[in-house]
Amino acid sequence: MKLSRQSLAAALVGLASAQTNFTGDVLQGAQVVSFLDLADVPSNAVTRYYLRVGELNGGLPLHLPVFVARGPPETLATGKKLSLSAAIHGDELNGVRVVQRVFEGLESVVGTLNGTVIGIPTVNPPGIYLNQRNYFTASSSGFLTNVNRVFPGVAPEDGASGPQLLAYNVWNGLWGNTSQVDVGIDLHTLSTGSNSSLWCYADFRLPYVERLAKLLQPNTIKIDPGEPGSIETTFVSAGIPSITVEMGAAKEWRVSLINRAVDFIGRVMEDLAILPASSASGGAAYVPDLSQTYIITTFEGLASNFGGFVEPLVGVDQHVTAGQQLANIRNVFGDVLQTVTAPVDARIHQIAVDPSTEPGERVVQLAYNSTDPECADGCVL
Ligand SMILES: [Zn+2]
Which segment of the chain is annotated as a signal peptide (predicted)? Predict the structure, then answer.
């Protein structure tokens, strides 16, 4: 649906200048809001809210859990505002624990914060309920929508679907059309069925994004122009530095990656002067340790040509050479139908862990630096 630019602008101006809209409901002890003005949030405290983001088929109200850690009153204006979000894909759950742990940690220091931290531990509760990636809309027997492709959403009067309305209400009702966010970090894992380590997408064309990516000290930094409609790219397009952090496999806690992501957000809060710099640095800017970080422009996916069963022959982050065998695709009797080989020297970025496969499924993804100049800002082949 085409959105009228004027109606969107009018709606956004109206929302950006609005005061908090408390619906009067209280859920699990938290006030329900449809618009949150950070000036109305208690200072020197971590406060929980539920953000009303629409209704499901039949009218069941949908609410997102929200944390806000606000420092002393004046720091709302003088300090930076950091947004954390997780589980926009309902099977990607490591980030949930990251957001929870960051706010647990902020409880004891919130009175000394120089700024504000906003967190949504679960952006897509319907996806989590259905134990899968997308948001289910029920009409016409049902559709599945990737919520990370519909930001900044669509206004209800312009005919928003459920996921578009969710995105609109987060973008405007919590993030104030970016007026309540200076830096955004969106936490993911791979989709169900694959494995990788800690890595991120980063659009180096916007200042501070490269710094954010390096503060993560990940196994891989994917220089990438982004995906329209994703949280990261919608922020970046609005001039708000943002990265997408990817933390291993779906549907299982990876404690070591959760620990690394929590430490990363601590470094970001120090870098933004929301938290004081650790004494070890003597006040100097943190120098990231990138000795284990592979910085690349290009992903290349290698697909199964058959339905059958995939047998990986290599592991995550292993270096491979052109021509090397990476995986066998076997039929149900065990015969090899296809051997997937590396077209170039590269590092294994993702590999299938779900044994079953189907035609066209990417069973291996390579990471490397393409020599094609068109890939300088990032390619996915
Ligand atoms: Zn995801």
Answer: 1-18
Taking only the tens place, the pLDDT of each residue in 247-298 is: 999 999 999 999 999 999 999 999 999 998 876 667 789 999 999 999 999 9
Name residues with Cβ closer than 5 Å to ligand 1, which is an ion.
89, 92, 188
Domains of the chain: total: 2
Same domain? For 21 and 82 the reply is: yes
The answer to whether the CB of 220 falls within 8 A of the CB of 379 is: no
Q: How far is the CA of 100 from the centre of ligand 1 (A)?
A: 18
Residues 11 and 63 in one domain: yes
Domain final residue, candidates 281, 311, 346: 281
- Together in a domain, 185 and 328: no
> In angstroms, what is the span from residue 84 Cα to ligand 1's centroid?
14
Q: What ipTM, to 2 d.p.? A: 0.99
CA 230 / ligand 1 centre spacing (Å): 10
Task: Measure 162 CA to ligand 1 centroid, in angstroms.
Answer: 19
> Is 22 a domain residue?
yes
Q: Rounded to whole angstroms, how far apart are CA atoms 43 and 66?
A: 16
Residue 349 CA, ligand 1 centroid: distance in Å: 15
- Tell me: do 132 and 174 sit in the same domain: yes
The reply to whether 28 falls in a domain is yes
Within this chain, do residues 144 and 202 fall inside the same structural domain, yes or no? yes
- Taking a C-beta distance cutoff of 8 angstroms, is the pair 235, 184 a contact? yes
Question: What residues make up the domain containing 320?
Answer: 298-380
Sign, Cα dihedral of 103, 104, 110, 114: negative
Is 232 found in the same domain as 122?
yes
In 3D space, the residue among 367, 381, 377 whose CA is nearest the CA of residue 219 turns out to be: 367
* Each residue's pLDDT tens digit, 48-88: 999 999 999 999 999 999 999 999 999 999 999 999 999 99
What is d(CA 304, CA 364) in angstroms, rounded to the nearest whole number? 9
Could you give the 3-state DSSP secondary structure of residue 30?
A: strand
Q: Measured in angstroms, how far is the CA atom of residue 92 from the centroid of ligand 1?
A: 6
Kindly state whether residues 311 and 267 are assigned to the same domain: no
pLDDT digits (tens, 9 = 90+) for 150-168: 999 999 999 999 999 999 9
CA distances from 200 to 258, 263, 324 (A): 14, 15, 26
247 alpha carbon to ligand 1 midpoint, in Å?
10
Q: What are 340-372's pLDDT values in tens digits? A: 999 999 999 999 999 999 999 999 999 999 999
